[in-house]
Amino acid sequence: MLRDYQDMISNQAVTILQEHGLVYLAMEPRTGKTLTAFATAQRYGAQTILFVTKKKAKADIMSQLQESGLMFHSVDVTNYEQLHNFLCGYDLVIIDEAHVIAAFPTPSVRAKELKRICNGKPIIYLSGTPTPESFSQLFHQMWVSSFSPFKAYKNFYAWAKDYVDIRQKYLYGKTINDYSCGNQSLIEKDTNHLFIAYTQEEAGFTELVKETILYVDMQPSTYKFCERLRIDKIMTNKEGVSVLADTSVKLMQKLHQAFSGTIIVDEPKVEARVYDYTKAEYIRDRFAGQKIAIFYKFKAEAMALRWVLGKVYDDPMEFNNADSGVFISQIVSGREGIRLDTADALIMYNIDFSATSYWQSRARIQTKDRVKEAQLFWIFARGGIEDKIYKAVMDKKDYTLAHFRKDFSV
Question: Are 93 and 50 in contact (CB under 8 A)?
């Protein structure tokens, strides 16, 4: 059953699709993009559909379609990594989380595969964050369509001459072009007619996310290790195990790991290790008895969680159907397309450098029908790097090497 606003958006989308060959549903997370897209496809008259989404979202997409009662001749749901297995034989293609094909200045493999599959086909784009970091990210999303408003341009570089304020920046000692400053007003002038935007507030969400930062004191050895690594750029213990951070990039990555109690050692072999279980133990004690979902950043953090918490769910559908338990997922693989709204709380073991990860992850716990407060907890090492990353992504900016150098006087 469509909500009133989904019904309205679907009707508008059909009109745009019929006239322009593509439509972009820029609906905020948890407002019902999937069902709205399927309803649009049915009203458009499509019978064979390819729905492209993230791997962990596939089961939920099929569940929503079955529950909707909408009927098609065939619907294939796949993830971006499997696109090479599909041919151009569908009436319509739905691209979920479309911003994942937004890389520039050259198109990603995903974008190239979609362009092949979508040749001459109508497209419904879905994303709550179409241009999370730059308006230049819109070019290759449109590029996959035969009906792109930018189809007169041979490639991104030609398009950028008219739509981007091209600047120079220094990277690894070289001067390169920076194409991230897309001209918002020009781009929107030529694309706004293709977009239908809808917010959670407009959808009637009453329980928006409440964020809380919880600080923990890591083991004294963790702080000593981080300080030594920052100064010396290399650490070697009595057993000959070495951690190397001889560049600013490596140092930023190593400190990002280390302040949460894990590290990738470089010698005698490359290996992920857990040396401080403080965060995992804090989560176990602080949230005992609650149904919780946890996002981690590094694989070793998952090792720490499994060791301390025991049995955990990896499948979001199984977790949502259970009365209790703990779900864990890597941030990037779990930030889009899955529901975790049955959880009492969403807990972030660490924080990603990406602003997209921040805004997408926090939406996993939301739903319009949620009657209890949607709580998001950040577990930060007191005096660590997480606070500094948080300030950047809250402002919708990625945490970059420039931020790191300033914050840690590197």
Answer: yes
Query: What residue spans define the domains of the chain?
Result: 4-203, 209-216+279-407, 220-274
User: Amino acid identity of 4?
Assistant: D
> CATH number of the domain at 4-203, please?
3.40.50.10810
What are the tens digits of pLDDT across the range 366-400? 554 445 667 889 999 999 999 999 988 888 788 88
Q: Backbone dihedral region of 338: left (phi > 0), alpha (psi from -120 to 50 degrees) or beta?
A: beta
Domains 4-203 and 209-216+279-407 share a fold: yes
For residue 409, the model assigns a pLDDT of 82
Query: What separation in angstroms does the CA of 168 have from each of 65, 158, 171, 178?
Result: 47, 17, 10, 5
Q: Which long-range contacts (CB under 8 A, 24 or more apart) does 113-118 make?
A: 113/83, 113/84, 114/52, 114/83, 114/144, 115/143, 115/144, 116/88, 117/50, 117/83, 117/86, 117/87, 117/88, 117/90, 117/93, 118/88, 118/93, 118/144, 118/145, 118/146
Beta-sheet pairing, 271-274 with 262-265: antiparallel
- 83-127 per-position pLDDT tens digit: 999 998 999 999 999 999 999 999 999 999 999 999 999 999 999
Look at 310 and 171; give whichever has higher pLDDT. Answer: 310
Q: How far is CA 342 from each of CA 162, 242, 348, 370, rounded to the nearest angstrom?
A: 47, 43, 16, 9
Q: What is 209-216+279-407's CATH number?
A: 3.40.50.300
Amino acid present at 380: F
Pair of tokens at residue 84? 């090479």
